[in-house]
Amino acid sequence: MGQGSDKTQDIAAHYELICADWRAGKEVYLAARFDKHGQAGLDFLLAQLSGGGEEKIRVLTAALAAEVLSKLRHLDFYAPYCDKLVGPLCALLATGDVQLRRKVVIALGWVGGAGEIDVLARVLFNDDDALCRAWGAASLMQMSFHRAQGEELRLKTKAVFAKAISEEKDPYACGVMIQAAQELFSKRWVSASAVEGRELEKIEKGRRAAVRFLSKWPDSRGGCNTLHDVNNTPKRSRGVSQSNVLRGRSLSSPAITSSSPSDQTDKSVPLGKY
After folding, report:
1. Which of the pair, 24 or 255, is modelled with greater confidence?
2. How far is it, in rounded angstroms, from Cα 272 to Cα 270?
3. What does 39-50 look like in DSSP terms, one character per residue?
4. At 4, is the pLDDT very low, low, confident or very high (cuts 50, 70, 90)?
5. Closest Cα to residue 226, out of 238, 236, 234, 218?
6. Residue 260 — pLDDT band, cuts 50, 70, 90?
7. How far is 251 from 245, CA to CA, in rounded Å?
8. Is residue 271 a contact partner of residue 175, using CB atoms and an 8 Å limit?
9. CA nearest neighbour of 238 among 74, 32, 94
10. Which sequence spans correspond to the domains of the chain?
11. pTM summary value
12. CB–CB of 273/70 below 8 Å?
């Protein structure tokens, strides 16, 4: 009894130190070791999400829980705890703070399953922030390393990727989408250096190759099979802009200038395996 109480106090103390750094806007190195608390630490984090409190702290707590689960995904409790977390994460997509929303999108890639594919698809189509759209694509790909079966994920996302890539106007976001798709479908359409360098010609070439491949890729089972199906997907995602305006197909130089949110690339979403 005493040991359990001591452990809870240790977790609470650790969490309070992390929260203090979050509020101060500091780099949070302490959070990197929260997975050492295991299942008890996850129970604690989920309990923090069950009440009210500051939106920033709630989002960062949910993101921390998702990161911990990603590290512990080889353990038996991974899937049940992911199921507990996806609801709060989807609700937190409603945040108007774009920095926080990006973190929620990233976290969904670590803990989301087949049921969250549509949620991330709506981020790709409807979010006003280019990095949210980019990270939405990266998170769909990340699902293949976590909860989603690769073949099922490819079947359900090929039309999503084709539509998003063909319509994306921001060069960096488009490049990240292509990279995510080529990782998921084991292809090579654009290099990381071309995306990071916003090389329009190479990204545009990659776009054409990706859309051509995805439009022809065989799809004999379930999911959104055509772009018509994707176009008619109900827009129900919380926190995602419901704009009906399609983004232009061609990339343009002005999209690379300071107005592009890709100038502030969030390095917390590498495209490789975690």
Report:
1. 24
2. 6
3. HHHHHHHHHHHT
4. low
5. 218
6. very low
7. 16
8. no
9. 94
10. 1-92, 115-274
11. 0.79
12. no
Looking at residue 157, the DSSP 8-state letter turns out to be H
For residue 182, how far is the Cα from the chain centroid? 17
Tell which wins on pLDDT, 6 or 105: 105
The two three-digit tokens of residue 263, written as one number: 């100038």
**Confidence (pLDDT) at 2:** 56
What does the chain come to in residues?
A: 274
CA-to-CA separations, 239 to 34, 97, 130, 154, 272, in angstroms, rounded: 28, 10, 15, 25, 27
Between CA 46 and CA 58 the distance in angstroms is 10
- Report DSSP state, residue 188: -
